[in-house]
Design brief:
Strand 4 and strand 5 form a beta hairpin. The radius of gyration is 24 Å and the shape is globular. 33% of the residues lie in helices and 19% in strands. It is α/β, with parallel strands linked by helices and 688 residues long. The chain binds iron/sulfur cluster.
Length: 688
């Protein structure tokens, strides 16, 4: 019995399933994951976890994990040794760069992988290849929120901590299915609501769990959040309810902004959003009366053609009412992936070096050129959306994507995979042979989080360490090692022996992380950026002022143009989002038996009214057709949706994948696909 006990190991790790960033010890025996054990000192979650964090680990040992590197030979893959795969990748990169130049190559980092791995992906792209064509999937979700905050307050992250959300007098959630997408954070809100009288107002198309609990639930028409936000802000100003002292001391651009609000009358807002004026006036009064307001939002805001502007409108409202800089206040874009914050923070973006310094800034570029010993590209690179377009135009010839199933998660699957088919060379680095990997020339087997060291950054800007609990399965390697092998084969030997050295380098170059060190992140310790040279961090941002030269925030005028509507032919609006049990497109959770048993198949939520009108029965099969493509699904009749609103879980894959329906429309400021703006028509496949 003692022998067996000896083999049980406890390792601190951070959950990979959402941006809350729950940390816990994982108990393992050999490769078996026995249980997870959160601790009171787990900074984001205390002793809580949700079903994914608790049971979602089987995928690590899935039989379907890639065993060896694969090289395409005609229409099949052949298993090869690492040397051969890496040499082949380097050879093709070199040839393509020689023939078409460095900008014919594109790189996508993974928001599920570590900060150090994001840092290396952008370093490979910039230093070794010589292009800024590097991006990550924050472009699919939260870039608009980041944009809105950069414009107004200067830092693109949550203003405070989850604790601050819990301390607010009023929490507003907009376009966030918080209970399913950020379960542990939602429980904090539920607790404050139930025990401490916190008010909860929910804005969504769909009456989900949080909406049912809320003190008030508003269902504005799809894509019109900007309108009610601006109208409410205008009304607050018209009534003289704004925070005058805060505006005097901390905010620039008032006059121009005030003027820009002219069109956002209550009549206009009612007409566009469908929310009665009296309710909006009352909402304005409530917001103005509360001392501490925190606003959380997610993809229901960002994945629209006006995603950045709507995020900006949220920040404008918070500024007018003085809801920044104090505990219990602020802006909280809720990050989806475990490390979507960190992946952008550490520079896998076409316009930013690590820590959001522009690649176009000569001084910044010189700093990196000095450290890396090469001239770096001066022009902003292509984001992932532009890269797909460039494949179609024949400008992008090579594509290296790690830890992301681009062929499922990007909008308009047929268009995206059509782009892959035009490439000369494609490398996919992942745990499984994903849909995207099927288009690759080389597939490289990567490690799961439990098999490597590194750091993740959660939605609160909190950097946390994860420690290696298991040896890599089969021949897999951690992403950072693989990228380093590619760089070395291309002639640049970085010589890192541990991710800690990568973080040291990032901290020495990016002021945002100046004081970050593995020592300060030991065990359950964490740091919330910016981390200053002396090692102090900023759990609550903007204490010393906003992140602009004069320390003042900026109000940002916005002009709402009607962007989207259903048509006579495509008369239904398709919404989509997460399920509690599944992670994103489901690549990992579908490999976890415990989870699959709970939620076996995908469905389409249909309102009782629509079901009645079209004669649909529970369990019948329908086909949805948009201008971009079609998807089939099983009918689930529910009052969570109303009228002609339909909802598809985004973990649905195969023929049900929602991205067969999405098209190429994007947020105008960030190129984030307007996933939530799909018009479709419906055909009955099987009545049941
Ligand atoms: Fe925590 Fe999110 Fe993981 Fe659930 S999925 S345990 S809420 S980090």
């Amino acid at each position: 019995a003692k022998m067996r006990e000896d083999r049980i190991k406890k390792t601190k790790t951070v959950c990979t399933y959402c941006g809350v960033g729950c940390s816990f010890d994982v108990w393992t025996k050999d490769r078996e994951v026995l249980k997870v054990e959160p601790h009171a000192q787990s900074p984001a979650n205390g002793i809580a976890t949700c079903v994914k964090g608790r049971f979602g680990w089987d995928y690590v040992n899935s039989e379907k994990r890639l065993r060896k590197p694969l090289i395409r030979r005609g229409d099949h893959f052949e298993e090869v040794e690492w040397d051969e795969a890496i040499q082949y990748v380097a050879k093709r990169f070199t040839e393509i760069k020689a023939e078409y130049g460095p900008d014919a190559l594109g790189f996508i980092a993974s928001s599920k992988a570590t900060n150090e791995e994001s840092y290396l992906m952008q370093k490979l792209s910039r230093q070794v290849i010589g292009t800024n064509n590097v991006d990550n999937c924050s472009r699919y979700c939260q870039s608009p929120a980041t944009k809105g905050l950069f414009r107004t307050v200067g830092h693109g992250g949550d203003s405070g901590s989850i604790d601050d959300i819990a301390k607010a007098d009023l929490v507003m959630t907009i376009g966030s299915n918080t209970a399913e997408s950020h379960p542990v954070l939602a429980s904090r809100i539920k607790r404050s609501h139930k025990l401490f009288g916190q008010k909860l107002f929910v804005f969504d198309l769909r009456k989900h769990e949080m909406a049912r609990r809320a003190d008030r639930f508003y269902q504005p028409k799809s894509g019109t959040d900007l309108v009610w936000l601006s109208a409410v802000t205008k009304y607050i100003l018209d009534q003289g309810w704004e925070d005058k002292n805060f505006l005097d001391e901390w905010v620039d651009g008032f006059d121009e902004y005030r003027q820009s609000l002219e069109k956002y009358t209550m009549e206009y807002a009612e007409e566009l959003t469908g929310i009665p004026q009296e309710e909006l006036k009352d909402l304005a009064k409530e917001i103005a009366e509360q001392d501490k307001v925190a606003i959380c939002w997610a993809m229901g805001v960002t994945q629209h053609m006006l995603g950045s502007d709507t995020s900006t409108a949220i920040s404008n409202l918070l500024l007018i009412t003085g809801n920044y800089r104090r505990p219990g206040t602020g802006a909280y874009p809720l990050r989806g992936h475990n490390n979507v914050q960190g992946c952008s923070d550490f520079g896998s973006m076409p316009n930013y070096f690590p820590g959001y310094e522009f690649v176009t800034d000569d001084d910044v570029r010189k700093r990196y050129e000095k450290a890396w010993g090469v001239d770096l590209p001066k022009e902003v690179g292509m984001d992932n959306h532009e890269q797909i377009k460039a494949m179609h135009e024949g400008k992008l010839k090579s594509f290296y994507v790690k830890g992301e199933d681009t062929g499922i998660v990007d909008a308009n699957i047929n268009y995206v995979t059509g782009g892959f088919e035009k490439l000369d060379f494609m490398v996919v680095q992942d745990l499984f042979l994903t849909k995207t990997a099927e288009y690759a020339d080389v597939v490289l087997p990567a490690c799961a989080s439990l098999e490597k060291d590194g750091t993740f950054t959660n939605t609160e800007r909190r950097i946390q360490r994860l420690y290696k609990a298991l040896e890599p399965m089969y021949d897999a390697k951690p992403d950072w090692e693989i990228i380093q092998l590619v760089a070395k084969e291309l002639g640049t030997d970085w010589g890192y022996t541990h991710p800690e050295e990568i973080m040291e380098e990032a901290a020495s170059l990016a002021p945002l992380f100046a004081g970050v060190s593995y020592e300060k992140l030991e065990g359950f310790e964490s740091l919330q950026w910016p981390v200053h040279e002396d090692g102090t961090d900023e759990p609550l941002l903007f204490q010393e002022g906003f992140n602009f030269d004069n320390g003042k925030a900026k109000l940002y005028p916005l002009d709402f143009q009607i962007q989207y509507d259903v048509t006579e032919e495509y008369d239904l609006h398709i919404n989509n989002g997460r399920l509690l049990e599944h992670f994103h497109e489901g690549n990992m959770t579908y490999e976890s038996e415990g989870i699959v048993r709970r939620t076996p198949s995908a469905w389409v939520e249909i309102s009782p009214e629509l079901a009645e009108e079209r004669g649909l029965k529970e369990g019948g099969e329908i086909k949805l057709i948009s201008e971009a493509g079609e998807a089939t699904g099983i009918v689930a009749i529910t009052d969570r949706v109303k009228g002609k609103e339909l909802y598809i879980p985004m973990s649905a894959n195969g023929k049900s994948a929602v991205n067969f329906l999405t098209d190429n429309r994007v947020d105008k400021d960030t190129d984030t696909p307007a996933y939530k703006e799909i018009a479709a028509k419906l055909e009955v496949v099987q009545k049941k």
